[in-house]
Amino acid sequence: MDSSNHWYRHAHIWSQYCGLGFEHPPRLNGVIQHGWTFVHGFGAGHAPPHGFAKYIWADVNRRRGQAIGWRDYYVTGAPFLYLDEMTPYAEDDPEPEGTIWYPFHGTVDYEAVSGDHDRLIDEINATETGPVTMCLYYVEYKIPAIRAKYEDAGFRVISHGDRGIKWTGGDADFLPSQLRELRRHRRVASNRLSTAIMYGASLGLQPAVYGDPMDLVGVKAGFNGTDLLEHTFPELHGTDIDAAVAHEIANRELGRDAMLSPTELALVLGWEEEQRLTTKVSA
Questions:
Q1: Out of the domains of life, which is the source (predicted)?
Q2: Are residues 133 and 244 in the same domain?
């Protein structure tokens, strides 16, 4: 199994959905899209081997991938949507309020982000009217100076946890934590159009994309994607985005219409025998 299938516990969530438990998902001879992208479902430098199944979230990713000659696509819908479906609201859930803010982040320890945090804080304070939760990615959360910037500004500062690497580490509660936090807020914001914005918009939060866009240290000029994202999704940039329009786009990009039943998903993933045996034992 490709180790990225364990990032954010995507394989685990699907295993639970298929009735196979969360802790030990069966082997998967393919690669799961692990984050939203505006291209073929996979980030730079993460090209699944030829012949391996590419489990991507939406048909738009399949079309983009096939345009560059990639094949072996299976459209499934995002694991986050399955988690949302499996997680009922509690009667004592608080009324949503305020904004959860996701600043642009690095991906591993050697991909640091450079930007003006003080300017970003000023922009947030000038825009948001309710309480602000600043959700830092684990890379930035582990840097005390960055955490202190936002804590000193009066923001609630959290992290959903570690992603993990090479089948080790990582927090099993990463996506459940993100789902809980999104549900407790009215708005979701970032300085880049990102996975978190798509997740929040799919849940009906009002998104916002504004502020110092920041950059990865050492990124080549013209390769940071900011201008392309603004050109491709102009309706998803600004401080007061139409929530209904964003909801429609997010559902398309996350593949809500492609979601499968537990039986269908197990068949697509090659888990039908495990599902049959589990059903037989529990019967």
A1: Bacteria
A2: yes
Total domains in the fold of the chain: 2
**How far apart (Å, rounded) are the C-alpha atoms in residues 100 and 97?**
9
CATH number at residue 227: 3.40.50
82's enclosing H/E stretch is helix 79-86
Domain that holds residue 260: 3-78+255-282
- The pTM is what? 0.91
Burial of 262 (0-12, 13-18, 19+ CB in 10 A): middle
What residues pair up with 135 in beta bridges, in sequence order? 158
Count how many Cα atoms sit within 13 Å of the Cα of residue 85 in the half-sphere of its side chain: 16
Please report whether residue 196 resides in a domain: yes
Amino acid at the residue 199: Y
Domain assignment present for 190:
yes
pLDDT digits (tens, 9 = 90+) for 18-60: 999 999 999 988 999 989 988 888 876 666 777 789 999 999 9
Q: Which alpha helices (DSSP H) does 133-241 contain, by range? A: 138-141, 144-152, 174-183, 195-202, 226-232
